Amino acid sequence: MHRGAGPAFRWARKMASSGPEPQILVQYLVLRKDLSQAPFSWPAGALVAQACHAATAALHIHRDHPHTAAYLQDLGRMRKVVLEAADERALKDLAETLQQKNVDHMLWLEQPENIATCIALRPYPKEEVNQYLKKYRLF
């Protein structure tokens, strides 16, 4: 474990142990599976970076939402679920659905190519968003 992370995790565990059980929040990410396959064949590190970019951007954009604040306050309890979309069209279709249903998210576009690579939702209770994500498999 990184030395600097120790105190933050100890603080998060201490916060988690005080009071009633907090609501479990999940940050969902949907990453394009086809980018890992030919003809793209992106390395695993590049795919992980896309998911990290999207997750960080979604947390930043929605930093003032109470769910995001609660999610970030308890670092030891952060939950992320990474799902796969078949291709760019599937990812953009999901983004459209989320937009129509007023689900807060970030569609990450890799630059300078302007390629949609990943969607990250802000942290949500899973019951609120799983209906939009249930057709996607774990990455």
Oligomer: single chain
> How many helices?
5
* Name of the CATH superfamily: Bit1
The overall strand count is: 4
Reconstruct the topology from this structure:
Blueprint: H1 5-17, E1 27-32, H2 44-61, H3 66-73, E2 80-85, H4 88-100, E3 105-110, E4 115-121, H5 126-133
InterPro entries: Pep_tRNA_hydro_II_dom_sf, PTH2, PTRHD1
GO molecular function: peptidyl-tRNA hydrolase activity
Pfam families: PTH2 (PF01981)
Characterize the structure shown:
This protein has 139 residues and is of the alpha+beta class. The chain has a single domain, classed as Bit1 (3-Layer(aba) Sandwich). The chain contains five helices and four strands. The protein has helices spanning 5-17, 44-61, 66-73, 88-100, 126-133, and strands at residues 27-32, 80-85, 105-110, 115-121. Strands 2-1-4-3 form a four-stranded mixed beta sheet. Strand 3 (105-110) and strand 4 (115-121) form a beta hairpin. The longest helix is centred in the middle third of the chain and has 18 residues, at 44-61. The chain is globular. It catalyses: an N-acyl-L-alpha-aminoacyl-tRNA + H2O = an N-acyl-L-amino acid + a tRNA + H(+). InterPro entries: Pep_tRNA_hydro_II_dom_sf (IPR023476), PTH2 (IPR002833), PTRHD1 (IPR042237).
